[in-house]
Amino acid sequence: MREELLPMLRGAAQRTADLVTSIPEEEFGRPTPCPEFDVRGLVNHLEWGASLFESVAGGGGFLPPKEYTGDFPERVERMLIAWDKPESWEGVSEAMGGLPRIVLAHMALTDLVAHGWDLSRATGRGYEVEEATAARLLAFARDMAPIGRARGAFGEEVFVPDDAPTLERFLGLIGRDPAWRP
């Protein structure tokens, strides 16, 4: 599983970091498809998520959100270093309610791709996702959607036709409207 998922994490982290660093501060107030966040708030959420997933990959605790610092690329690099260790994929995370670490790796990938897509829509920039990554995320979301909705991580499903691209079906399943525009 690690051999398949780690390259997907690396790719999503790089794409999202490139996107984040391309957004000028004057666009930070734009709305995003993630209704509780504007662009600045969403980048801040990504920073926190990278630090959280770094912590739990290393067996650490749950980290509370912090204020925006502008260091997402550095944080996501530290997260990848943590996930590069084989032991980070073993066992469960007590900090995350006893979830298996493999589930947490999928959650990190979901966070990077979904919020990367959110930022791309909010700012009018492109965000490409490999078909294998989109298919992995769709399968994961199908399994986790009820729990994700119950815990507030996913929104209510948005109808997306069965013949839509895989990424759009994933987005609809987690509560995003693939047709969203600012």
Characterization of the model:
By secondary structure, this protein is mainly alpha-helical. It has one domain (2-133): dinb family like domain (Four Helix Bundle (Hemerythrin (Met), subunit A)). It is built from six helices and two strands, in the order αααββααα. It has helices spanning 2-22, 39-57, 72-83, 101-123, 131-150, 166-173; strands at 92-93, 99-100. The protein has a two-stranded antiparallel sheet. Helix 1 runs parallel beside helix 4 (101-123) and helix 2 (39-57) runs parallel beside helix 3 (72-83). It is globular, with a radius of gyration of 15 Å. The mean pLDDT is 95. InterPro entries: CHP03086, DinB/YfiT-like, Maleyloyr_isom, MDMPI_metal-binding. Residues 9-57 form the Mycothiol-dependent maleylpyruvate isomerase metal-binding domain. It holds the Pfam family MDMPI_N.
Summary tags:
two-stranded antiparallel sheet, Four Helix Bundle (Hemerythrin (Met), subunit A), 182 residues, CHP03086, 2% strand, single chain, mainly alpha, MDMPI_metal-binding, 57% helix
